[in-house]
Automatic annotation (TrEMBL):
Listed transmembrane segments: 240-264
Localization: Endoplasmic reticulum membrane
Xref: InterPro entries: Big1
Record's signal peptide: 1-19
Keyword line: Cell wall biogenesis/degradation, Endoplasmic reticulum, Membrane, Signal, Transmembrane, Transmembrane helix
GO biological process: (1->6)-beta-D-glucan biosynthetic process; cell wall organization; fungal-type cell wall biogenesis
Full protein name: Protein BIG1
GO CC, alphabetical: endoplasmic reticulum membrane
Topology in the lipid bilayer: Single-pass type I membrane protein
Phylogenetic placement of the source organism: Eukaryota, Fungi, Dikarya, Basidiomycota, Agaricomycotina
């Protein structure tokens, strides 16, 4: 029994470490009050596809002049938390009449960013593919639009990611400010995604993967190389996971060990006690 309990306890840390595997951050906000966001019910284990379907099925979706769908490969919730509270993106979310922020949303490894197509089919909108910082894009005020913004992938050590994320935030905020100048009625959906395996195997980055401020990123790369262990490349030990590990080791394990010791002491007592009708004198006489 003791060996079985020990085996179960040994598995607890590993099950906790992968509790948030295959999850991405999901943030949505609107320039007007949105029933689609206010009535969103993510549940205990929110799913990216389910959240999109809930937003699409809402009646006020097509009332927006533009829906912005931002796909950010490799983004973790910790990358958003590392941004300065005073940055433009944080201000936009904070000042939005309606917003939802979900740090860990399930998204399968094989899913492709088809959110823009779903919104286009729902409202008959025009899709505009936007590469941040690449130049101008056309906007027809008489039609509805879906802006599909593909952010460059982000990976590497925490310090390197923080520098890159700050540059990505600047690029994204610039595009959102440009949209705000064209229409004051829009919905923004930002979500992380998993970096494709073939993208990780590429020997070098494309021109769109390198942020404009190359000098700053090169200096950051010299201080903290993007090559690191698995804990640097993937967000395994989040604050919630660390808390779970502490609870498992400092609360659950002592309770189980106390229970085992108590059972062992009871068994030892029963073995050492003599039978009720046992008489040492009778045994000696015999």
């Amino acid at each position: 029994m003791t060996a079985r309990v020990a085996a179960v306890l040994a598995l607890l840390p590993f099950s906790s470490v992968f509790a948030f595997s295959n999850t991405v951050p999901f943030v949505a906000w609107s320039s007007q009050r949105s029933d689609a966001l206010n009535n969103l019910t993510p549940g205990t284990r929110p799913n990216h596809g389910t959240l999109l379907q809930d937003i699409i099925s809402n009646g006020d979706l097509c009332s927006y002049d533009a829906v912005v769908v931002v796909d950010h490969p490799g983004a973790h919730s910790s990358d958003l938390q590392a941004l300065q509270p005073s940055c433009r993106l944080a201000t936009l979310i904070k000042d939005a009449p309606s917003s939802r922020q979900l740090p860990h949303v399930e998204r399968s490894l094989g899913s492709s960013p088809e959110a823009a197509a779903l919104f286009t089919d729902r409202c008959g909108s025009i899709t505009i593919d936007v590469i941040p910082g690449s130049g101008e894009w056309n906007f027809d005020a008489d039609k509805k639009h879906v802006l599909s913004i593909s952010m460059p992938p982000i990976e590497g050590s925490p310090r390197y990611r923080k520098t890159v994320m700050a540059e990505h935030e600047r690029l994204l905020s610039k595009e959102l400010d440009r949209l705000a100048a064209l229409t004051s009625n829009h919905l923004v959906i930002y979500a992380g995604s998993h970096i494709p395996l073939e993208r990780r195997q590429l020997p070098s980055l494309s021109e769109f993967d390198s942020p404009p401020d190359a000098a700053a990123l090169l200096s950051a790369a010299a201080v903290a190389s993007p090559q690191g262990g698995i804990l640097h490349r993937y967000q395994l030990l989040t604050p919630a996971l660390i808390t779970s590990l502490l609870v498992a080791f400092f609360i659950l394990v002592p309770i189980v060990m106390i229970g085992i010791n108590t059972l062992a002491s009871i068994q030892s007592t029963l073995r050492s006690e003599a039978p009720k009708d046992y008489s040492a004198q009778e045994k000696k006489t015999q």
